[in-house]
Automatic annotation (TrEMBL):
The gene is LOC113058700. This is Uncharacterized protein LOC113058700. It comes from the Eukaryota. It comes from Carassius auratus (Goldfish). GO terms for molecular function: nucleic acid binding; RNA-DNA hybrid ribonuclease activity. PANTHER family: POL PROTEIN, RIBONUCLEASE H. Signal peptide: none annotated. Gene3D superfamilies: 3.10.20.370, 3.30.70.270, Ribonuclease H-like superfamily/Ribonuclease H (3.30.420.10). Residues 250-371 form the RNase H type-1 domain. It holds the Pfam family RNase_H. GO terms for biological process: DNA metabolic process.
Length: 371
């Protein structure tokens, strides 16, 4: 058909007649045929991901598969997608390209469009599995990663011509204002280079893909569950251990100072302990620990202070940057413990922290005595 790309009838019939694979080799053969046609399948990577999880790459090709009902559903979905595959348009480099991107089930999904008359015609369907690091990120950051990945894939056809990216997340705001430990500087700079520094790319926010457009694109079953939200607020709440955890002192409430230490004398026996001290210098708790790590002792001291003050307003001071970082950046899973805490990091060498240095010295001395 002039101006269109379609899968040949012979290839469609070949895939339709294939029976459910029983061995690794048969499944790999099927996936090879499917991936040759992935440009016509909107959610190819979603089904491909589930089927590839059945393959043991260390096993011989003749190894029997553990074929499940879920595998059969994904196998059937791919065969049906081939039979319903639409004809794709050829790119017209005198028109703007339009790219809709979404993330679902750990897969980045996109469709590249161009205006054709009064509607839009798909040029290619793009889908690829996101890496494990991205799938563990909050939804808004996963959306940024998915957008960057699909834009890179679309560039093979766009060839630096004007491209408009439609996204239901505030991609630009996230990259400009993001302060999170979920992403390395190298990864973030890569996303910035793709989404912010690409001259031919324009990002246009949108609530979701129009349902009518989904039907035209053959994606009517792919419901978008993204609700209206502020990405910055969502990231702030998802990256914090709990909503009421701050890094500045509370007005009123208790004030505790914690410290832990570990040393290894000449006899080779580790001496480890911790102490929790009140603002008045009262030693609330101190014990020896069966650890060989000062970081572990600092965490235990912090945990015990939280447990002792459960249900109370409390500001906890620690001189351990490690423990402070665990609470404020890495301890989302601690939310289930229902601690109500404030943890501050203070440098003992600063003159403005004389009171803290005094109490920290008492903590350190007491933790040393617990050996």
């Amino acid at each position: 058909m002039p101006g269109l790309r379609a899968i040949s009838t012979d290839r469609v019939q070949l895939i339709r007649k294939m029976k459910s694979p029983r061995t690794i080799q048969q499944l790999q053969s099927f996936l090879g045929l499917i991936n040759y046609c992935r440009s016509w399948i909107p959610d190819c990577a979603v089904h491909d991901r589930h089927l590839r999880s059945l393959i043991d790459h260390k096993a011989p090709p003749s190894t029997l598969l553990n074929w499940t009902e879920e595998a059969e559903l994904n196998f059937t979905a791919l065969k049906q997608a081939i039979t319903k595959a639409p004809a794709l348009g050829l790119p017209d480099y005198n028109k703007d390209f339009h790219l809709h991107v979404r993330e679902t089930e750990g897969v980045a999904i996109g469709v590249l469009l161009q205006q054709h008359g009064s509607t839009y015609r798909p040029l290619v369907y793009l889908s690829k599995k996101l890496d494990n690091i991205v799938t563990g990120m909050p939804a808004c950051l996963s959306a940024v990663a998915a957008a960057a990945l699909v834009v890179q894939m679309a560039e093979r056809m766009v060839l630096s011509h004007p491209l408009i990216l439609y996204k239901s997340h505030q991609v630009g705001a996230i990259l400009h204002n993001m302060q999170t430990q979920h992403m390395t500087a190298q990864r973030r700079s890569g996303y910035e280079a793709t989404l912010l520094a690409t001259k031919n790319l324009t990002i246009q926010p949108t609530a979701s893909i129009n349902p009518a457009l989904l039907g035209v694109l053959g994606m009517a079953d792919m419901v978008d569950n993204v609700t209206e939200h502020d990405c910055i607020i969502e990231l702030t709440s998802s990256c914090s251990s709990r909503a009421d955890l701050l890094d500045s002192p509370l007005d009123g409430g208790e004030h505790l100072y914690v410290d832990g230490s570990c040393s290894k004398p000449a006899d080779g026996v580790y001496l480890c302990g911790y102490a929790v001290v009140s603002e008045t210098g009262e030693i609330i708790e101190s014990f020896a620990l069966d650890f060989n790590s000062a970081q572990a002792a600092e965490l235990v001291a912090l945990i015990r202070a939280c447990e002792l003050m459960e249900g109370k307003r409390v500001t906890i001071y620690t001189d351990s940057k490690y423990a402070w970082g665990v609470v404020h950046h890495f301890a989302k899973t601690w939310e289930a413990r229902d601690f109500k805490t404030i943890v501050l990091h203070c440098r003992c060498t600063q003159n403005s922290k004389a009171d803290f240095r005094l109490v920290s010295h008492m903590c350190s001395g007491k933790s040393a005595q617990t050996y």
